[in-house]
Amino acid sequence: MKLFVKFDFNVVCTKILVEKLEEFGIKYAMLGFGEVEVLEKIPSEVYTAFTKALDEYSIEIVENQKSILVQKIKDTIVDMVFNEETINIKTSAYLADQLGHSYGYLSNLFSEVTYTSIENFIILQKIEYTKQLIIEGNLTLTEIAFKLNYSSVAHLSTQFKNTTGITPSAFQRIISKRRDILKK
Amino acid sequence: MNQDYIHIILADDDEDDRLFFTDVFEELKMTTKVDTFNDGVYLMDYLNSEDAIIPNVLFLDLNMPRKTGMECLKEIKANDKFKDMAIAIYSTSASEEDIENTFVYGANIYIKKPDNFKKLKKALSEVVTINWQYHTSGLNKDNFLLRL
């Protein structure tokens, strides 16, 4: 006896995907056209097991290589800025060395994906770190400038003002007034 | 997981200003979706409705009839539902004290309305770019202050 079957690939794949998502306890929303929105962060070991389970059905998660590399660039910069040992190293050489691509390539890719440049991103990170240190209140602005490898406190102040439009002292005043309001 | 456009809302009672604003975003290279409201009451009615889509950035004019930008700001900051939304005050000239007060009451950005289209384009582009960094790079939004 021969049986003739007919199936809808889309329905089959979607059903497998839903079963697997549920099996791994992943909270999701189906968006259709092969897109799934993940509503909670997936722990990396669950993610690995999940991709492996899908692999059995030849279902592959399409990852955007560009976004992954950009994320790596950002992570490397953040590590660098927040680490006293690496903050003095030349960024372009450090990034190229850590990520195994030329700085020119990384720089173009970064601008294409994030609408900003690596240089601007570094400045933004350093100013963010400055803000955090100002709020903590343990260091003077001069000490912060030294810690972040600025040539002078004036240089840091200028960069702060250029980046945020306000001076470090106005920033400090605003944050402390905000806290007073919250306390009321 | 990645939203591929930036959702922006503007509340402003001046029709020309609303038009300039939407024109700028049509020219920027980022993909944006811009909604506008004519005053603070319409804005808050929308934001408080159950099916409201909370924007990435809200631009608030300070001087609006019925409900001012400052009243909207205070209402928004009192509601946890809006904690991920960046608030930009978009206004004609104000005193230094008024400007600082908008920051104190929780605004992230203060933009003095530029007098020409080119400057407006530059300012709005900067706001959206920096906001995007806060959105995508895990920066602390509580410390996000920008004045243009």
UniProtKB/TrEMBL annotation, chain A:
Where in the numbering of this chain does the HTH araC/xylS-type domain appear? 75-174
Could you tell me which InterPro entries the record lists for this protein?
A: Homeodomain-like_sf, HTH_AraC, HTH_AraC-typ_CS
Q: Keywords for this entry? A: DNA-binding, Transcription, Transcription regulation
UniProt KW Nucleotide-binding keyword:
no
Q: Name one GO molecular function term.
A: DNA-binding transcription factor activity
Keyword Calcium tagged: no
A Pfam family this chain is assigned to: HTH_18
List the protein's name. Answer: Possible ARAC-type regulatory protein
UniProtKB/TrEMBL annotation, chain B:
Reply yes or no: does the keyword Phosphoprotein apply: yes
Q: Does the keyword Cytoplasm apply?
A: no
One Gene Ontology BP term is: phosphorelay signal transduction system
Pfam families associated with the record: Response_reg
Keywords of this entry? Phosphoprotein
- Cited SMART domains: REC (SM00448)
Q: Which residues form the Response regulatory domain?
A: 7-128
The chain residues annotated with the modification 4-aspartylphosphate are 61
* Superkingdom per UniProt: Bacteria
* PANTHER family for this protein: RESPONSE REGULATOR RCP1, RESPONSE REGULATOR RCP1-RELATED
Name of the featured protein? Response regulator for gln (Sensor glnL) (Nitrogen regulator I, NRI)
User: What organism is listed for this UniProt entry?
Assistant: Kordia algicida OT-1
